[in-house]
Amino acid sequence: MAWSDAMKLEDFRDFRADLQGQSGCYEIGHVRAGYFYAKYAGKASCLWDRISTYNSPSKCHNIHIAERHLASDIKRRNLYFHIFRTRDFAAMESRLLSREGIGLGNMYRFNQKYEAAHEHEDYSRAATLKLPDIMNKCSHCTRACPRQA
Length: 149
Prior knowledge:
The protein is 31% helix and 18% strand. By secondary structure, the protein is of the alpha+beta class.
């Protein structure tokens, strides 16, 4: 189990086979010099349904991502995502958000709140959840990261 390669958010339809009927966690962010930099983390019982909502400013629930769709600057609209398939998506998301932090000054700066599930049973379970080794090595990118050297 590992994070997928980064996929361009606006091209999500090209990845239907990878997303349809799959549950898991996802991160949305930017790719710079071949490295994925996460700005938002989420979970979904159906990755296809969830990822598709981020491509419409009217359906997107996150203001930071919606603003980037409306931006005239192509660099601001250049968002990517990657996925991690798991049935234990609620606990995994909780662990990611707890470890890396949310809001300005933290890795998941586009996340503005912890979901209610994080405050109850999922959070306590997530505290003992062992994340896959690839996530413990570097949470900033999908390949070997110069920050880990």
